[in-house]
Design a protein that fits this description.
Blueprint lengths: L9 H17 L20 E8 L4 E5 L4 E4 L3 E4 L5 E2 L9 E4 L1 E2 L8 E4 L5 E2 L3 E6 L4 E3 L3 E3 L12 E3 L15 E4 L8 E6 L4 E3 L3 E3 L12 E3 L7 H18 L7 H9 L4 E8 L8 H16 L7 E7 L3 E5 L3 H4 L3 H11 L12 H19 L1 H4 L3 E8 L10 H12 L5 H7 L3 E8 L5 H5 L11 E4 L2 H10 L3 H4 L15 H7 L3 E7 L5 E8 L4 E4 L13 E4 L7 E8 L22 E5 L18 H6 L8 H8 L4 E10 L3 E10 L4 H6 L12 H4 L4 E5 L17 E5 L4 E10 L19 E6 L4 H8 L15
Parallel strand pairs: 19-20, 19-22, 22-23, 23-24
Antiparallel strand pairs: 1-2, 2-4, 3-6, 4-5, 7-9, 8-10, 10-12, 11-13, 14-15, 15-17, 16-18, 20-21, 25-26, 25-28, 26-27, 27-30, 28-29, 29-30, 31-32, 31-34, 33-36, 34-35, 35-36
The protein binds 2-acetamido-2-deoxy-beta-D-glucopyranose (NAG) (5 copies).
The site of one 2-acetamido-2-deoxy-beta-D-glucopyranose has 5 residues, from loops.
Length: about 775
């Protein structure tokens, strides 16, 4: 029988298949299996493939051009009785339907135009907020071929001074909960036909951030692009891989780690059951090889378990070999190359067996290394499957056992949270038809990180993994830091603020001046322009970071071209600090480590990733994320005796609160104008005072230091310490950082000096590698 019958032969087929069906019915009692027919299975506007021709167990897979999806069925299976499941229906002919995007009209406090009942691929929408409401997210969005809207969720919100920003309502969703104070909860659900990926529940935390990640509503035809996968999976796996860094960051520590078995265990399982296409296997092998290659660019050496599975497990690499034999790592790629699937006749898929095998391996490792050492082992399970398991039952109970083992039977929320980073289960839903709800329930890991992915084709995974950046770039990943409880241990504090730089300037009269700065790339330190005087040459300046990284030479100093301290002497401002920003180019690029690492700065692509904003989010989106509240809690560093940095907190007075705050500038020495705005232009953030929070006040030597906001694992600098109204004097060392009612500090808002930063940092010169800024 021809595989792809043309319409011309249809009549004949109809008769034949009718006969066959009758024969089939007659022999149902015996061993005879019946073939399916090609009748009515064509798809208008697309084509189809059969995995095993028209034999029992064959899967019919429909394919449509980009921007379309097969409807009503995505696949059909040939059953033993010779009938397709689902059966083709003449009154609902199979066709390629235009991709639809979820309903954007869920927007609150604004208008979506044009208003339509349904939105299809390439349809454009524009958004407007009612007066009195401010817009965040994209003002214009286009429905993309993957079933998602371009840009980010549009939100129209009041500035009500809430602790957390209005989290909005993603297209196709509805939200319960309209209070955005600390500990307030919002819950989401997706409208019918859609299922929710991300957090269905989010809680406003003290740091002004919502827990978890923004939910998205997926149709069956929605999928993640390779760029989305690379960003989300890449940043999650990088977090795991960089956490594996030896704690002391020393080269010695690194060597030690390599000579021993690693403590990162990666388990990869690939579904090769008949429900998945043939070429998938060689393609999957190249995808896994790519992933392993990427991981090996980091200084970690994980142990691997790699299996292909259907009703049985075919093991490519056994993780226990890492304890039994030598040099397994070297052989992995070769093993993948030569691996072939012996028997693909099976139509069963036993997902539970996969989890059970992994559970067994973990138990063995635990016995082998001892329960105590096992506590430090991280486990990452990566699963590629369509989720159509039909044997072995649900893997949920086995997964629960794995969790128990890694979480050490802890059930309290706090205890589980503290063990969460030791287990990640990523699921890549792949195949013509995937069982998304089920698969989603098998993901495990931090709610802030995406663990469920819907993949259009395995080749997309290759691109996605290929785009994950290498360790050399990751080491420079901005804003990464470690979190510790309040501590006096200088090294620990250093790891919390690894960007902190100490700048010493030797003036011609041999007077020394000290400032702080922040490392923002391998080559650049950001600081205040007023730290320098006109006569300063690069050789007068040195930069220190931490113990062994000190006394660094400087190649060049760039002051903001508009910085001019004397600009307003005649207008009653003796010292004018507008544009008080400078960049120091180091003579040699710095070796990035856990104790010396750059901070993120606004309007760069990396900061979009650090803030988990979409790739096409703008500079403005970043500003509205970082400086959204009328009182924004920020931190700065203060230097306490020899090169020790302590974190202090302030609240920036923004919006309606700003005028009152800057009015105190008139009390500063050397200011005789009546208009505070003469001295404090829009380029400054204002902090200090005791209402509603008692702020800390910076001291002289803190000039040039970063004013920043820290999230769980990343830190972003939003401003730099410039000048203040008073030097606070107090009895005790602790008290001297507390603001008086009238003391105010002014910090250069980095969002206002982006053109300057860009002109230098984004320049493609031979001296240093350029930084990627956002277009707008
Ligand atoms: C099914 O098709 C195969 C090959 O196309 C053929 O050998 C077999 O006899 C057919 N079975 C029935 C019951 O028609
Ligand atoms: C939306 O897309 C559909 C299908 O392509 C098209 O018919 C319709 O005109 C589009 N609507 C607008 C407003 O562009
Ligand atoms: C996937 O398989 C096809 C056919 O075997 C091959 O042409 C293609 O190069 C493969 N892609 C990758 C990324 O391995
Ligand atoms: C967890 O509980 C199981 C069953 O109750 C027990 O066998 C196991 O030893 C416990 N594990 C730990 C780490 O306490
Ligand atoms: C950066 O590049 C621009 C355009 O090429 C040039 O005008 C500018 O002078 C450069 N800036 C520096 C600091 O080299």
């Amino acid at each position: 029988m021809p595989l792809f019958p043309s319409l011309r032969f249809n009549m004949r087929f109809r008769q034949e298949s009718w006969l066959a069906a009758l024969l089939c019915l007659l022999s149902m009692g015996g061993e005879v299996w019946c073939n399916c027919t090609a009748q009515n299975i064509e798809i208008a506007g697309g084509n189809y493939k059969l995995t095993k021709e028209l034999l029992t167990g064959s899967t019919l897979i429909y394919n449509c051009p980009e921007g379309y999806f097969p409807y009503p069925a995505l696949v059909r299976i040939c059953q033993a009785n010779g009938a397709w499941k689902p059966r083709p229906k003449t009154y609902l002919p199979q066709k390629c339907k235009l991709v639809e995007c979820p309903d954007p009209n869920v927007l609150e406090n604004g208008n979506v135009s044009p208003p339509q009942e349904k939105y299809f691929v390439d349809n454009e929408t524009t958004y407007e907020c009612y007066s009195g409401y401010r817009m965040r997210g994209s003002p214009k969005r286009v429905c993309l071929p993957n079933g998602k809207w371009s840009g980010s969720t549009t939100i129209c919100s009041h500035d009500a001074g809430d602790d957390c920003a209005d989290p909005g309502i993603p297209a196709g969703a509805s939200r319960a909960g309209n209070m955005f104070g600390i500990d307030d909860k919002v819950t989401y659900s997706c409208n019918s036909n859609l299922f929710l990926v991300g957090s269905s529940e989010r809680v406003c935390q003290e740091n002004g951030q919502w827990t978890g990640m923004e939910p998205e509503c997926y149709y069956k035809h929605t999928y993640d692009t390779s760029v989305e996968i690379s960003q989300a999976f890449g940043s999650a796996i990088k977090n795991t891989l960089t956490k594996e860094e030896p704690l002391d960051g020393s080269p010695e520590g690194r060597k030690l780690r390599i000579s021993k078995e690693g403590t990162l265990n990666i388990y990869i399982a690939v579904d090769v059951s008949a429900s998945i296409e043939d070429k998938y296997i060689s393609n999957t092998t190249s995808v896994i090889k790519k992933l392993i290659q990427k991981i090996s660019s980091f200084t970690v050496s994980p142990n691997y378990e790699i299996v292909f599975f259907s009703s049985e497990i075919e093991e490519v690499v056994n993780i226990l070999d890492f304890w039994e034999k030598k040099d397994v790592r070297k052989d992995i790629l070769e093993k993948l190359d030569t691996f072939g699937i012996n028997d693909r006749s099976s139509t069963g898929t036993d997902l539970n067996l996969v989890f059970f095998t992994f559970w067994e391996r973990m138990s063995f490792i635990k016995t082998r290394v001892g329960a105590n050492a096992f506590k430090d082992h991280r486990h990452v399970i990566i699963l590629f499957t369509d989720g159509a398991y039909n044997m072995g039952g649900s893997p949920a109970p086995t997964l629960a056992r794995i969790k128990d083992m890694v979480y050490m039977n802890q059930t309290g929320e706090k205890e589980v949270n503290s063990r969460e980073e030791y287990l990640d289960v990523y699921v890549f839903a792949i195949g013509a038809e995937t069982f998304d709800d089920d698969l989603k329930s098998f993901t495990v890991g931090k709610a802030e990180e995406k663990h469920f992915f819907k993949v259009k084709g395995i080749d997309k995974m290759y691109d996605a993994f290929d785009d994950i950046i290498d360790e050399n770039d990751v080491k420079g990943l901005c804003g990464l830091h470690k979190e510790f409880q309040k501590t006096d241990d200088n090294e620990k504090r250093r790891k919390m603020h690894p960007w902190g730089a100490f700048i010493s300037i030797r003036n011609p009269n041999n007077n020394h001046k000290n400032c702080l700065g922040s490392l923002i790339s391998k080559e650049f330190v950001l600081t205040a322009a007023h730290c320098f005087i006109f006569e300063n040459l690069p050789e007068h300046v040195t930069v220190d970071f931490f113990e062994k990284v000190r006394n660094l030479q400087v190649k060049k100093i760039f002051l903001h071209p508009k910085y001019n301290i004397n600009a307003k002497v005649n207008e009653g401002v003796k010292e004018f600090y507008d544009y008080d920003v400078a960049l120091i180019l180091l003579k040699d690029p710095i070796d990035i480590s856990v104790t010396v690492r750059p901070i993120c700065i606004p309007c760069t692509k990396e900061t979009n990733t650090a803030l988990k904003l979409g790739a096409d989010s703008t500079c403005k989106d970043q500003e509205q994320t970082l400086l959204k509240n009328h009182l924004e809690r920020l931190s700065f560093l203060t230097k306490i005796d020899l090169n020790k940095l302590y974190e202090k907190t302030v609240s920036a007075k923004i919006g309606d609160n700003r005028d009152e705050c800057i009015s105190y500038a008139l009390r500063a020495k050397g200011i005789t104008t009546n208009n505070p705005k003469d001295a404090v232009t829009d380029n400054f953030l204002c902090t200090g005072g005791q209402q509603p929070f008692r702020d800390h006040i910076a001291r002289k030597g803190d000039s040039g230091g970063a004013v920043f906001k820290s999230y769980e694992s990343r830190t972003i600098q939003v401003a730099l310490v410039s000048w203040g109204t008073e030097e606070v004097v107090a009895a005790s060392p602790d008290e001297r950082y507390e603001s008086t009612p009238t003391s105010r500090d002014f910090h250069i808002n980095l969002f206002r000096v982006i053109p300057f930063l860009k002109s230098i940092l984004a320049n493609n010169t031979d001296d240093y590698s350029p930084m990627e800024f956002l277009q707008n």
